[in-house]
User: Fold this.
Amino acid sequence: MSRKFKVPHTLVLLYGMIVIAYALTLVLPAGQFETELNDHGHEVVVPGTYAVIEETGSLPLTSLFTVIPRGLESAQGIIFFVFIIGGALAVIRATGALDAALARVLNRFGGQPAVLILMGMLAFAVGSSTIGMAEEYIPLVAILITLCVGMKMDTVAAVGIMVVGYGIGYGTAVMNPFTVLVAQEVAGITPVSGLAFRLAIFLPFFALGYLHVLRYAKKVRNDHGNSLVFDIPEAQPPDPPQTGPIDARQRLVLLTTLGALVVVVWGIKQYQWYFIELGGVFFALALVCGFIYRMPLDDMARNFIAGAGELIGTALLIGFARGIEITLSDGQVLHTIVNGLSQPLVAVGPELSSVGMLFIQSILNFFIPSGSGQAYVTMPIMAPISDIVGVSRQVAVLAYQMGDGFMNMIVPTNAVLMGILGICGIPFGRWFRFIWPLMLQLLVLGSITMVVAVLIGYQ
Assistant:
């Protein structure tokens, strides 16, 4: 009997890519572009200056092991920032404010399915677009399912509200610290720059996702036999957890969190804050919210550690991903790869090149579902390619975030997606039948968006 193929763990895939990167340093010629400083003081490659470097020694075999701690060291800024974000969100969630707020939004519009879908998706999209929420939504699955089934919708519609909402939020993210800010840092461009264009494209992409979920929900309401999971007992709604009304302290926690986001945007714009300052803001936010809710210091500490601990896997993925770039750079073949990838993109012009970047990022998301990890693997290559093909690095970041964000809704290597489907008892094959038509539409609209970004000189 043949064994079914099982996708390896993401960490295994990343280390496999490090091994492949090492092998490439042995077979590819070392080469380098000349570089120069652009108007913003960032080092960029000079198109047409690639040259092979003669007589370079090969990397020692031991670099396959030493590159891991080097990668973790190199990415320490984003790694510790991720830990602080995770700890802060855990403290805030322990107050019950986030769960209660989202539950209240959904309950308020529970008698109006179209409004429920709209408000639910909008809440999830905004949370993902601003502070990168995803795993934090999982406890709300049962509440959402109960509300949807009470209005004669099924669990697929409920999950669609959540997953499509956060997928659109990630794909068109305004200031997601795990994707946009990381990619912009790697690409060497100003944090949160290009915000106006990302705000502008949010509406059409959100409308596309909203209509897809709404059409499916209406079909199920008209005839439950149209449900993709009507014959699966495990996919029927579980008993929901009890969530009480928002109290005064929880309201103050929510207002404080919103205020912190405003401070973050202001600090980035006015004083060019980055990981150290932003980490300080989120740590202060955790303390203030804990004090507001009168949470004992020991409980705050335990929640903070637990929240940070949940992101250990993400931190390791970031370090391993950075190890790929270090291996290619040490072997002096990174520019050789950039030159090779850029050739077909240069031949088709900047508009089609930008579309090619989007599809490359979308494919890579299957192997690197971690948003931050994918940024560290791909942006060191895509940013220089954008210089060569004649598009801005901001366009390269846009291709990355859409490829990463949208594909999170369909790739089985996405732990959050598979966790949500597992809780709901929805087989991946049934979910695939629901989501693939939307993915095609998003990729078409994404391609159009990339061309528009190039034509308007998106910076």
Q: What stands out?
A: The first strand starts at residue 31 and ends at 32. The chain has 19 helices and four strands. The radius of gyration is 23 Å.
